[in-house]
Specification:
By secondary structure, this protein is α+β, with helices and mostly antiparallel strands. The chain has 8 helices and 20 strands. Strands 11-10-13-18-15-16 form a 6-stranded mixed sheet. A hairpin with a 2-residue loop joins strand 2 and strand 3. The chain is globular, with a radius of gyration of 21 Å. It binds copper (II) ion (CU). The site of copper (II) ion has 6 residues, from loops.
């Protein structure tokens, strides 16, 4: 059973945590062996290389080594909308858009093919999690429409358990994917259809029971509804705060944005100084009451749920409970690395921490 393998690996991880205090401290060995941390966050550089220095160096340097698969790749997921990461021919298998007759003019029919499938994914170096996925990835693909568009999702359950897709947004009860009669059995399919509204940052997730198990296994994704006319041009990023209970004890062992622990420590998010950066942040973390997003050396404007065009607050830390989401907008003022992480320190040390790398001119 995959659970058995994951449990074994998880225990090993926990033992390592118990031995050295944090994933971060353990990373020093990797830094010395292969330069895995690339200097980012590796504190005490140039300190005496005795035992004491080793024990205290690199507390922020993240997990040991790198994941081997990068499939799916969190850096690709970050800027993928409506399967834009796929070659055109392959993309058409999962996403098609067709103009609808007006009025109002400009509406699109957006058709998706989403399938559920069981798949092991590497969430930290050497740590494989037996996930339930939409289209083989966690989070599922980011779906994006403009307010008023018609959304039609053909959902095929190729997994081993009953699943659904429950969308946040306006829709009739029959499209809710939350009741016992809505469950799509393995091998069966269902078509969800509704108009995309209201504009904002929403999400979708499985609503089969037990709900917490189905969500935490990986069945969730971002659903963006743009306002008519869109938002101002920006470098747009999707960050889904998630976590994994690798030994199935109802508590998380690994935290991340977009699944892979400390991924953006090793592969910083490249941004341009002065350019508007818009981050779509969704919290789906199971088993913990809240999660948060904190950015160093910067402030950002917050658009909670993205349902208004005016920012409600300007801050450097935003807290979200499970299912909550917020659009964050900012401009990097200085070049260089800017750390971002959950302000729950435990989450940061267990994987939910990374860097932006701001550069002058073309990124
Ligand atoms: Cu499910």
């Amino acid at each position: 059973m995959p659970e058995t393998a994951a449990t074994t690996l998880s225990r090993r991880l926990l033992l390592r945590l118990a031995g050295v205090g944090s994933l971060g401290a353990a990373a020093l060995a990797a830094t010395k062996a292969g330069g895995a941390a690339e200097g980012l966050g590796a504190g005490h550089r140039g300190a005496r290389h005795d035992g004491a220095a080793d024990r205290h160096a690199g507390h922020l340097a993240g997990a040991v080594g790198r994941v081997t698969s990068l499939d799916p790749d969190p850096s690709v997921y970050l800027r993928s909308f409506n399967f834009s990461h796929l070659p055109e021919g392959e993309r058409a298998r999962y996403y098609r858009e067709t103009p609808l007759p007006g009025p109002p003019d400009g509406r699109l029919l957006r058709e998706y093919e989403i399938y559920a499938v069981d798949r092991e994914i590497e969430i930290a170096p050497g740590l494989f999690f037996p996930a339930w996925t939409y289209n083989g990835q966690v989070p599922g693909p980011t779906l994006r429409a403009t307010e008023g568009d018609r959304v039609r999702v053909r959902f095929l359950n190729q997994g081993s358990h009953p699943h659904t897709i429950h969308f946040h947004g306006w829709h009739p009860p029959a499209m809710d994917g939350s009741m016992a009669e809505h469950q799509v059995q393995p091998g069966a399919e269902f078509v969800y259809e509704f108009d995309a509204e209201p504009f904002g940052l929403h999400l979708y997730h499985c609503h089969a029971v037990p709900l917490k198990r189905h969500i935490h296994k990986g069945l969730y994704g971002a659903f963006i509804v743009d306002p008519p006319g869109g938002r101002p041009p920006a470098d747009e990023l999707v960050m889904v705060m998630n976590a994994f209970d690798t030994n199935f004890d109802g508590d998380n062992e690994v935290y991340a944005v977009n699944t892979v622990a400390h991924h953006h420590l090793h592969a910083p998010v490249e941004v341009k100084v002065g350019e508007l950066v818009r981050v779509y942040v969704v919290n789906v973390t199971e088993f913990d009451l809240v999660n948060s997003f904190h950015l160093h050396g910067m402030f950002f404007d917050v658009f909670r749920t993205g349902t208004r065009l005016e920012s409600s607050e300007t801050t450097d830390t935003v807290m979200l409970c499970q299912g909550e989401r917020a659009i964050l907008e900012t401009r990097f003022r200085y070049p260089g690395p800017f750390m971002f992480h959950a302000h729950q320190s435990e989450f940061a040390e267990l994987g939910w921490m990374g860097f932006f790398q701001a550069r002058e001119g073309a990124a």
